[in-house]
Give the backbone structure.
Amino acid sequence: MQTEKEDEDDASPEEFFGLSDFTGSDSDQLSFSTGDRLLVHARTSSEWWWAELQGVFGYVPASFLHQGAEEDDASLEDPWQDEEYFGSYGTLRLHLEMLSDRSRTEAYRQVILNNSSSLRDKVLMDLGCGTGIISLFCARLAQPSVVYAVEASSMADYTRQLVKQNGCEAVVTVLQGRAEELDLPDKVDVLVSEWMGNCLLFEFMVESVLLARDRWLREGGVMWPSSAALTLVPCQAHSYYAEKMAFWERPYGLDFTPLQPLAQQEFFTKPKFSHIIQPDDCLSAPCDVISLDMYTLQVKDLEEIKGQFQFHMEKSGSFHGFTAWFTVHFESLETGGATVELNTGPNSEPTHWKQTLFMLDRPVSVRAGDSISGTILLSRNPVWRRHMTVTLQWSVNSSTEGTDNCQVETKSFPMWR
Ligand code: GJV
């Protein structure tokens, strides 16, 4: 034991290289450039390592580093993780979850139904059709000339059978493969897709949609969804906080608080997917922080997306964190027709996306009349292309105390790398 321990202490730092540029967001963090040689002295957590660059020490994000100057970590493993990604869509679990989500599936059905006369004789693409539900709605509820149902996973084999089984094979053509490698005889009039992930962008399937738009959507063609927005609200999360953090205060009459830093690291570093926020736990009205126009959005815009917020507290309570969700809109093709909205927020029917909770390190008491202002930044992982980090920066402005207490706080949440 003794020698092992000594070995650990004496361990010489490990050599790493910057995979891409990183700019530290506070003085504890070390900024570096692609290719910089760093010495890692301690793997403090799975996310942050203590490292040295030319004699200067600081924390660095582990995901921005690789070992060996030539051999990229990302070149050993696919940065899109397609094998794993499309592998998971080759089984029923996710398709069952999506199809069981009535708000989601009904929204798409409603769009097709509301626009059925405009879809007559049109060429459609359903990108990432899965089991083909949207394509089948198109064939059943409207009379398009053709629907290209594009699906990269092995589910496509079954989708073909489902199309046949439901008598839609004259209209729906299932194309198995990545949309990026697609070859079509003609451009399409409508590009429909259900590409939204947690916090809207996670998985970055939207990139495939944008590339398909630029390659295959005819001039003046239609994007469904047509726009998307990310919404944020400051919130309470008493029961989650109690379950993961307050728990350690007095379990079985004992003081386990020395475990709280570990609990914070383990439970509050990443956002909590599949949170369901009660409208009562919203401390203020929500605010749209990011809006995307599916006609003008560019792939390069996805690298960094910024938003701002200003919330006015409507009640007093504990500010435990921020909750995020998204809404997408489908424009109408009929004159005077209504837009269809799919809203995944707390005042709509729950969806399989639920909401995403970002916990602060410690709760802050707020009072009605206080305001919280700040920014949100979604930074796409430069290596792992389906991942991103959400950085929130905020200050609480008290309505009762002086104006000198508005310290700016910041916290970055990896999703997932
Ligand atoms: N090409 C073809 N199929 C795809 C692609 C692509 N580039 N990307 C995803 N899919 N809303 N986050 C398929 C994937 O295999 C799955 O069946 C479906 O699209 C995902 C739809 C729901 N995911 C989401």
